[in-house]
Design brief:
Elements lengths: L1 H31 L11 H20 L1 H33 L1
InterPro entries: DUF4229
Keywords: Membrane, Transmembrane, Transmembrane helix
Protein name: DUF4229 domain-containing protein
Length: about 100
């Protein structure tokens, strides 16, 4: 069960990285061929990374909705389990004190 929990987070993160890398490659190619302007002076690499970040963020938001929801549900379940364990421990301690 915990493997499934980790896999949703890992899958989502891997897909976010893949979208960013795809945008990075696409922007680098477009800058190289002059379709997009190059950065000022030596800032070309920073310019390409920033453009890739700006493009990948909304793409990830739209394309990874299902994965984000699955990961969120797993996180909520894990938090609920932790709260239940904490409450059970607190109840046991209160019973032992009295």
């Amino acid at each position: 069960m915990s493997a499934a929990r980790t896999s949703a987070a890992i899958r989502y993160t891997a897909m976010r990285i893949a979208i960013f890398v795809g945008c990075l490659v696409a922007v680098a190619v477009l800058v190289q061929f002059g379709v997009l302007p190059k950065g000022l002076g030596d800032s070309n690499f920073v310019w390409v990374v920033l453009l890739a970040l700006v493009l990948s963020a909304p793409l990830s938001f739209v394309l990874l909705r299902k994965q984000r929801d699955a990961m969120s549900q797993q996180i909520v379940g894990k938090v609920d389990q932790a709260k239940a364990r904490l409450e059970a421990n607190r109840t046991q301690e209160d019973g032992a004190v009295q």
